[in-house]
TrEMBL record, chain A:
Domain Fe-S metabolism associated: 11-132
Similarity comment: Belongs to the SufE family.
Source taxon at top rank: Bacteria
One Pfam family here: SufE
Gene source species: Spirosoma fluviale
Name of the protein in question: Cysteine desulfuration protein SufE
Cited InterPro entries: Fe-S_metab-assoc_dom
From TrEMBL, chain B:
The protein's name: Probable cysteine desulfurase
One Pfam family this sequence matches: Aminotran_5
A GO biological process held by the record: cysteine metabolic process
E.C. designation(s): 2.8.1.7
Family to which the UniProt record says this protein belongs: Belongs to the class-V pyridoxal-phosphate-dependent aminotransferase family. Csd subfamily.
Record-linked InterPro entries: Aminotrans_V_dom (IPR000192), Cys_dSase_SufS (IPR010970), Cysteine_dSase (IPR016454), PyrdxlP-dep_Trfase (IPR015424), PyrdxlP-dep_Trfase_major (IPR015421), PyrdxlP-dep_Trfase_small (IPR015422)
Keyword terms, alphabetized: Lyase, Pyridoxal phosphate, Transferase
Role, per record: Catalyzes the removal of elemental sulfur and selenium atoms from L-cysteine, L-cystine, L-selenocysteine, and L-selenocystine to produce L-alanine.
Enzyme class label: transferase
Chaperone as UniProt keyword: no
GO molecular function: cysteine desulfurase activity; lyase activity; pyridoxal phosphate binding
Superkingdom per UniProt: Bacteria
Organism: Spirosoma fluviale
Catalytic activity: (sulfur carrier)-H + L-cysteine = (sulfur carrier)-SH + L-alanine
Amino acid sequence: MTINEKQDEIIEEFDLFDDQLDKTQYIIDLGKKLPPMPESLKTDENRIMGCQSKVWVDAELKDSQLYFYGDSEPTAQISKGLVGLLIRVLSGEKPEDIANADLYFIPRVGMGNLITSLRAGGLASMIERMKAFGKAYSTVKQ
Amino acid sequence: MQSAIETTLDIQQIRRDFPILHQQVNGRPLVYLDNAATNQKPTAVINALTGYYEGYNANIHRGIHHLAEKATAAFEASRRAMQEFLNAKHWQEIIFTYGTTDGINLVAQTYGRQFLKEGDEIIISTMEHHSNIVPWQMLCEEKGCILKVIPVNDEGELLIDEYEKLLTERTKFVSCVHVSNSLGTINPVKTIIDKAHAVGAVVLIDGAQASSHLELDVQELDADFYVLSAHKLYGPTGMGVLYGKKELLDAMPPYRGGGEMIKEVTFAKTTYNEIPYKFEAGTPNIADVVAVKTALEYMAGLGKENIAAHENDLLQYATEQLSELDGLRIIGQAKHKIGVVSFVLDGIHHQDTGVILDQQGIAVRTGHHCTQPLMQRFGIAGTTRASFAVYNTRDEIDRLVTGLRRVQKMML
């Protein structure tokens, strides 16, 4: 599935919910399903600064595709869910596609205050970091 | 926490004075419990602001036309109102600032730089807001002074015995918060001031959180400096007051240079104006100064003792109701508190708590509340804080408790 196909799928899923709280529950549950990130990758270098809670993201290039790992401190479940959502959209794609992705699903799914009040939660910083990985690996030859 | 006075206020009537409260947030009626950050403004204050701009906006003090005279009179009437509010001896002791932070910086940068020297000790407390830590650290760095810190106990009260041990002939300045913004603790500032004076130290009290909840009397306290922000007492943002004893203010050098603060300017030498104008360079925040008088009148109309009694009732009720929740721990259980309840929920990040409460129309504050050393003292990264004002109700506390149950259900 391409990045845009995955985005469209997520938009459809969110359309099932009218209530903000249900959408948030969905994101929390996504976080709970996120595969564990090895503790050794939770370094200061991989930490996304500008978050109220601790969040880490790392990437690995395999067969010309970029795979992401992410986690938050255990109590910060919304941040973890948002990392999970971004990983679902971006992981397993070509670095240049990640670097150039237009993440139109974010305004479309109506996450409301998850976007605004999580400015401190660093959604924008997470996206920036993942795109930076995409850009950096675009120039790497395997 | 038990209040001796039964509140006689009609809270539903009071709520009608605050237009902002009557709105839906995320499909539910707004519950505003972030009053320690800033409280809301009654219509009378909003009208005072628009009345100024619609009726008599002009630059003050040197204008000779009708509007300038009217604006000057209103501006200076606010100074007198603030003098009365704090029970200052002289009107010249009221300096208008941009807020509490500005007032503390003014004192650190003028009194501090002029009178403190290498090796002098400055005492603050563990529960200070960053705005009452950083200006003193900057001064210590520049002048070689030493910063000492009064510890707190597990209830969030200052350890006065430890404070006494810190006080020596080297102590030249004490800067302490009247009421903790994170915990709600009311500190025994009269005792703190008296003990500091006994060793010859000068004292500043940060009254940002106290001003809308407690009766203030700077003469009775014998405070050397007292600072506050208008926006925490139902007044406008961007405006505050520094009270200082006349003899201290007279001895201090000016802070900022510019218009109004001068007596005469030549390229050879400038002489400075008298207090309070010596510290009010540039065109001041006239509209907000004018409107703060209305905010003081509004509070006086309700009666500060009535406001305190109502807020005490809310504090007691909230403490009881929140204590019913499994896994909720209140941070700060001092004997003397204003209407602030700070808490942590087991296994749930305070940021997530704030987001999900907001989705239910409930505004609280989450994080370290600009008191990181205090959070470190309690071994936590932050709290969720509910803080009350005169227009809050027991029903709203019920909404908070229900909202928190929902948070727990979603997270755990």
